[in-house]
Structure formats: C-alpha cells, structure tokens
Amino acid sequence: MVLRKRLLAVVALAAFFVLAAAACAPASGASAVALGTVTDYRSDKSQPLAKDGPAPDFQFTMPDGRKLFLSDLRGKVVLLNFWGVNCPYCVKEMPYLQKAYDELSSQGLVILGVNTGDSEKSVRSFVSGKNIGFPVVLDPQVYASTLYDARYLPTTVIIDKTGNIRIGRIGAYENADQVTADLSDLLK
For residue 102, with 0-12 CB atoms within 10 Å meaning exposed, 13-18 middle and 19 or more buried, which class applies? Predict the structure, then answer.
C-alpha cells in the first residue's frame, strides 16, 4: 500500500511538471524569436583596435544554432552594431540598419546586432515587437562588447571583406542613407 501511494505521488508530481511546462511554452501559432549568443572572445594573440587593422575575432552562435567565428565571415562586409534595449538611440537606428540590410544583404552585407548585457527575456520581447531580419546575438558577459571597446551605445564597427576594421562609429545613425553611404564602397 505504501509503495502504491509513493508511486501515485511520483506520477502526480510528474504530471504537474508536464502541465506546468506546457503552460509556460509559447502558444501554438506564436512565433518564438530566435537569438544567438556570443560564446567566447579570447584570441591566441590580443590585437589593439585600429582603423584598417584586423578585426578581433570572437565566437558566437547564430540564431539558427550554427557556431561561427567572426573570421568565418571573411569575404563579406560585416556591420557589428552594439546596442541595448533601454538605449533610445539604439532603438531609433534599428529601422535604418534594417533598411540597409534589406537593400544590401544580397551584395554580401552581414549585420550582427550584438546586444550588450541585457537579459534574454528583455531582448526577446524587444525583437519580437520589431521587424528585424538581421541576426541578433546576445552578449551577456559583454565579451565582444569589451573586445570592441563598445562602452557607449550604440557603437557600430564595419569590417571589410578582408577582415579589417574600416569604420568605427560611436552614436546612432541619423538615417538609412548614412548607413548605406558607409557601406556602399566596401561592397563593390
């Protein structure tokens, strides 16, 4: 009898956890926003940031689960945008970055929105309310943000096809034309 009561208690507890997990899952039809994560920035040799110098490498997981190093993107122009959910200038420039991405991604542009230190929940909530098509990766330990000296948000770093830093910008773009102007010569 005691064994039967224990077995019933275990089954009841397991059922409770299954129901609780189902209640916390996104509703069917609700699209979960996929986010990536910066996983490491340590390099064999430290490199100072310098215009026309090599872009420091770091590893990240793309929203689709692929693990990449920044150096895996050589041959493409990469725009790293370091931003935060509570940064009004970051929020203001997101549509400008998206417009440039829409226009130029077919020419080899990669934009990585690197969120600097916000919780996954707040970033997921922010991104789900916006029309952001470029990959967003979380940097919860501010590895990449520290590596790229992104102390002020937004900070944008543009890396050419050979892996060298061509533009470093602190502060938001004022419009989409500014973003496109910074990128167009590098995409030729």
Answer: middle
